[in-house]
Design brief:
InterPro entries: GalNAc-T, Glyco_trans_2-like, Nucleotide-diphossugar_trans, Ricin_B-like_lectins, Ricin_B_lectin
Function: Catalyzes the initial reaction in O-linked oligosaccharide biosynthesis, the transfer of an N-acetyl-D-galactosamine residue to a serine or threonine residue on the protein receptor. Has activity toward Muc5Ac and EA2 peptide substrates.
Radius of gyration: 26 Å
Number of helices: 14
Bound molecules: manganese (II) ion
Structural class: alpha+beta
Strand content: 15-25%
Shape: elongated
Helix content: 10-25%
Main location: Golgi
Organism: Phodopus roborovskii (Roborovski's desert hamster)
Enzyme class: transferase
């Protein structure tokens, strides 16, 4: 049998590919590789657009091993994938979105891991194809673990040192997959019950399959040597039927898989608590029959690093309420500002009975050491942000990575910005709030939070 050598780590255009060690991989023979490809099923949702009708069939006629399946009515991503999977005959099922371009030698490194352990679900690394000009690049941070916050938004967290491999091109464990790009042993997929067929159209299915595979005796890996480009769209180009909601899907996943941790979701999304998740009896039965472990096990053994970034119970804030300037007696105010707009200095409105005070002059110095509009229970995802030692202080999307959104509220009442080594200052005449060279004797650099938690502040200032 002729050995075929495949260079795994040659990527078309990934930016850091120069620094990536090259690896080689041996496959049984060429025919086997062809078989793998041939057995991938293609699936399409019900016809809506012209080019998915005859033009698609004409094009695919060039590839005799490709079968096009069509649903009778609109089924959505989840059930359509199940239809494709049920028609597949190969040993391995690979799911990709339609707006993907597989990179060089993307498949063998996925199959290799499944061949070694059939209960491993493997995900390629998803690179970014720009939706405007199709340029190709790695995601910010490249290799990261898949995670979620307790509103069930997908998040990426760094690989902790304990899980980092000597060779960064080695596969690494990921708690949840990003979306729907993965390969799985076909029989194992069906042993797991496929996707929950009660999930509608789109959303939550990546959590369902991820929790299920980990908790029910399998595992999941991201494979740095397998690269697939994906177009991240600006908007969703289709309509979701009335009555279908992402919330209902997420509630279903939480009810079936998350045990007592579902409560953390309901605390943040109270509207989910009484939402109907439909009939989940079959899903719960499956969980029992597969002898699946608890969500607590998942959080302790697999996603143990997640709470450091997204704690189920929010740690206490260091300070909150209005932020009053000592020199001017005026308060920081968002002026209901939009993203990127500068903070302003305005007359303090606390106690003046103005209904709007809540949304404009209340801030929280959070456990992430950033400052956000809103009270501690309802912070917005906007943060005090400064780019230099002379720039205005603006509200920007919170990145939760400290950096230019890290602040220190010091004993001398200054708001110190470690990255620029400067302090928050203001000017009474034009109401500006800006960064300036620290001068602890300047009263315009001293700020008073309405409430402080000295224990938390002391801990922050020790860091
Ligand atoms: Mn996609």
């Amino acid at each position: 049998m002729r050995q075929r050598q495949v260079d795994l780590c040659e990527f078309k255009a990934s930016q850091d590919s120069n620094s990536r060690p090259k690896k080689t991989f041996f496959l049984g023979d060429e025919q086997k590789l062809k078989d793998w490809h041939d057995k991938e099923a293609i699936r399409r949702d019900a016809q809506r657009v012209e080019h998915l009708k005859k033009p698609l069939e004409d094009y695919m006629a060039l590839f005799p091993s490709v079968r096009i399946l069509r649903t009778k009515k609109r089924e959505g991503l989840i059930r359509t994938r199940m239809l494709g999977a049920s028609a597949a005959i190969g040993d391995v099922i690979t799911f990709l979105d339609s707006h993907c371009e597989a990179n060089v030698n993307w498949l063998p490194p996925l199959l290799d891991r499944i061949a070694r352990n059939r209960k491993t679900i493997v995900c390629p690394m998803i690179d970014v194809i720009d939706h405007d000009d199709f340029r190709y690049e790695t995601q910010a941070g490249d290799a990261m673990r898949g995670a979620f916050d307790w509103e069930m938004y997908y998040k990426r967290i760094p690989i902790p040192p304990e899980l980092q491999k000597a060779d960064p091109s080695d596969p690494f464990e990921s708690p949840v997959m990003a979306g729907g790009l993965f390969a799985v042993d076909r029989k194992w997929f069906w042993e797991l019950g496929g996707y929950d067929p009660g999930l509608e159209i789109w959303g939550g299915e990546q959590y369902e399959i991820s929790f299920k595979v980990w908790m029910c005796g399998g595992r999941m890996e991201d494979i740095p040597c397998s690269r697939v480009g994906h177009i991240y769209r600006k908007y969703v180009p289709y309509k979701v039927p009335a009555g279908v909601s992402l919330a209902r899907n997420l509630k279903r996943v939480a009810e079936v898989w998350m045990d007592e941790y579902a409560e953390y979701i309901y605390q943040r999304r109270p509207e989910y608590r009484h939402l109907s998740s439909g009939d989940v009896v079959a899903q719960k039965k499956l969980r029992v029959s597969l002898n699946c472990k608890s969500f607590k096990w998942f959080m302790t053994k697999i996603a143990w690093d997640l709470p450091k970034f997204y704690p189920p119970v929010e740690p206490p804030a260091a300070a909150w309420g209005e932020i009053r300037n000592v020199g001017t007696g005026l308060c920081t105010d968002t002026k209901l500002g939009t993203l990127g707009s500068p903070l302003r200095l305005e007359t303090c409105i606390r106690g003046r009975g103005e209904a709007a005070w809540n949304s404009m002059q209340v801030f929280t110095f959070t456990w992430k050491e950033d400052i956000r509009p809103g009270d501690p229970q309802h912070t917005k995802k906007l943060c005090f942000d400064a780019v230099s030692h002379t720039s205005p202080v603006t509200l920007y999307d919170c990145h939760s990575m400290k950096g230019n959104q890290l602040w220190k509220y010091r004993k001398d009442k200054t708001l110190y910005h470690p990255v620029s080594g400067s302090c928050m200052d203001c000017s009474e005449s034009d109401h500006r709030i800006f960064m300036n060279t620290c001068n602890p004797s300047s009263l315009t650099q001293q700020w008073l939070f309405e409430h402080t938690n000295s224990t938390v502040l002391e801990k922050f200032n020790r860091n």
